[in-house]
Amino acid sequence: MVRGTRTQRLRSSSALARGALTVLCAWLLLLLSFPAQAQTEFPGVAPMGGGPPPSGGDAPPAPSDMPETHAASGGMDTTLPEGQEPSLPAQPLAVSKTTLAQIGSDGEPETLGTGDEAKRQYYGLYYNETAKQYRYRVLFPLWAERVKPSTSNPQVKDRASIFAGLYYNRRSAEHKDDVLFPIAWNLRSPQAGARTTVVGPFVNRRTKTEGDDWLLPVYATGTRADGGYTIIPPLLTYRNRDAKGGLNIIGPAFCAWKGGQSCDTRTAQDLDLGLAPFYFFGQNDKRLYEVVTPLLHYYGYNVRLRSWTNVYGPYVRRHTDKREMLHVLPIYFSIWGKGERHTTVAPLFHYGYDDTRKLLITPLFLHRNAGHGKNTFITWGYARHRGETELDMYTPLYWQYRDRRIGLDRHFVFPIYYRNTSPRESTNTVFPLFSYSVRHGVSKSLWVTPLFNYETDLLGWSTSLHPLAYFGKKGNDSHNVAVPFYFDFKGIHSRTTVIPPLLFARHRTKDTLTQIVANVYYTERKYKNGKTWEVHLLPLLSYGQTPHGHFWNILFGFAGYTRNGPNTTVRALWIPIPLSQTF
After folding, report:
1. pTM of the entire structure?
2. Which of 57-71, 317-331, 477-491, 528-542 has the least mean pLDDT?
3. Which residues pair with 134 in a beta bridge?
């Protein structure tokens, strides 16, 4: 765990800077507290690793009062046959040196070679630390160096140095880096065959399968195993390609595709291209389209429906499996197919027909023949329909509707009279004075002006004189209301009565009763073992009884007495004082 903790502190070049800061702090500590020493160790000052962990020592003895444990009956029994009992080695937790060498450490590889045996030296601004193959040196603030075995090849040293905080150099089996901050970076990875070079705005990167060349912000290009990219902001150019497709943008021109290696209608599976805002084209295995905005032209083809649409300004031509269409907007419209034709010349007429129907519309009338004896004729002030139902309209004020199949006949004289008759119901209404409706054998409803209503049905009746009186009964429920003098609501399990002028209110259920008369409040509840009741003459006196006792109070407890079985309590100045109590 010591190595793992030290690993969190030291990470590549950041460890060099932290070590330099540690040396400065240690040097100040030397000046303030101790004389300079050529070689020593200071507790707590260990930038490259701490001291050994505290010794564990023997475990403390168990407390004397700890309960003794006993094995359960049969706990020492075994199901193994005699002579095959399992056995443990003499030291079950011992680990051989060979195994320890294979286990490794919880630290990261970049700290291999260090340990608790590190030796540290302080000479003013110079600090040196060594531990086996690990070495760390600092001459603050001019120079710092760290040397350790390379991770992949311990035979090769991993050396990293910083000079005056401006030049960084590292050489190892994995890295060959040079940085002159902030002018140039040259980072190489010999094992991966990769190199990255940055000089001002120029960036050059190479790997075995990739490459990038940037001259920011003017130009950027790169190659990948399955494609590449190019960006030229001054020319509004962007190109990107991979194994799935790509996107090219050059000013207002663009092309996006999927499948294939280039923007080619012969190889791409899904392609969209154009020169915005003048021309757009796209195609895939389901559809094809073309738009030429200066010519007001659109062409679209649907492969699944085998239909196409062609538009040139007001001219519209469309084809489907069932119909053909030709329009000259907004005057001429024509649709035709097998056994049908529909033609419109706006605003003069529309005429259409199919195998069984005909329709003619002019500014003067509409005539429709739907076959099977269904005819409709509409003109100004008159309308007539004949079929399974019949409708007549004379001026917009009188309407008559009939359905001879069910004996229905309706008349409506807008807006004062409505009549509806059928074998099931009958309604006569004169707005807004009178309405009488009957559902034969089921219900009746009578309205005289919007104020009086009487209704009856199979469950009961109701009478209302809005907003003063309401009376009625429905099943086991009833209500009688004379606003604002009397309110009574009765159900199968309860009844509530309120008489405001008499300051009276009463609510009764099967087991309870609550009643208020002026300032007298009374309530009771029935139980299996008796009844509890209490009465209050507010705010002076209260008295009540229960199956186990009784109570009385004056001024809500200014003085009072309560008995509940053998327990007795008195109250004085609202303070309860127990006199006898049974636990």
Report:
1. 0.54
2. 57-71
3. 131
